[in-house]
TrEMBL record:
Family, per entry: Belongs to the UPF0301 (AlgH) family.
GO CC annotations, alphabetized: cytosol
Source superkingdom: Bacteria
SUPFAM superfamilies named among the record's database cross-references: VC0467-like
Name the record gives this protein: UPF0301 protein FHR75_002923
Length: 198
């Protein structure tokens, strides 16, 4: 099987997607799609973008519910700090950083993804956003841990598209992202959940 794009340096992972390979059976990450938000010599941090919970944003952050991208649910961002909330936003191409938003990757003119300070009044920021997702928890790796997992075959590393973190069909995102890669990776999308059934 041909291998997906592999990062030449740690700095290249921010803004990329990690797709769990069929070999990764840990229930926290099986068939997950992780958007990497930060990656450096100290480790990595990201959010699982394809795990909506059956919980409305309103139950934890009522002021943000009207602005949450459909389906308007809280997402499980990963197994770390499940009692904390993280807001991921899409900033359209020509907008400067809105109040309360820290751009994570992308650029003015091309659109970007950022983190929003959830203590900011929603009305002060939402007019300048084109997407909003709220995550409970996040995924984190210590120094060199993610690189080791990639080398062991736990993750495919692929480019992210701006719509991925805000997909209206998040539960189908794993297969959708694999299929758009073409070649052998597209075939992985048809693997059964239990590879012993293949």
């Amino acid at each position: 099987m041909s291998s997906p794009e592999q990062p030449p340096t740690s700095s290249t992972l921010a803004g990329r997607l990690l797709l769990a390979t069929p070999a990764l059976t840990d229930e926290n990450f099986a068939r997950s799609v992780v958007l990497v938000l930060n990656h450096d010599e100290d480790g990595a941090l990201g959010v699982v973008v394809n795990r909506p919970l059956d919980v409305d944003v309103e139950s934890v952050l009522p002021g943000w519910q009207p602005f949450a991208t459909a389906p308007g649910k809280l997402f499980q961002g990963g197994p770390v700090a499940l009692d904390s909330a993280l807001g991921l936003v899409a900033v359209p191409g020509d907008e400067p950083d809105p109040v309360g938003v820290r751009r994570v990757f992308g650029s003015v003119g091309l659109g970007s993804v950022g983190l929003v300070d959830l203590d900011t009044p929603p009305e002060a920021v939402v007019a300048q956003l084109s997407g909003l997702r709220i995550f409970a928890g996040y995924a984190g790796w210590s120094a060199a841990q993610l690189e080791a997992e990639i080398a062991e075959g736990a993750w495919f590393v692929v480019p992210a598209e701006a719509r991925d973190p805000f997909s209206d069909t998040p539960r189908e995102l794993w297969g959708q992202v694999l299929r758009r890669q073409g070649g052998d990776l597209a075939l992985v999308a048809s693997f059964p959940q239990d590879v012993s059934m293949n």
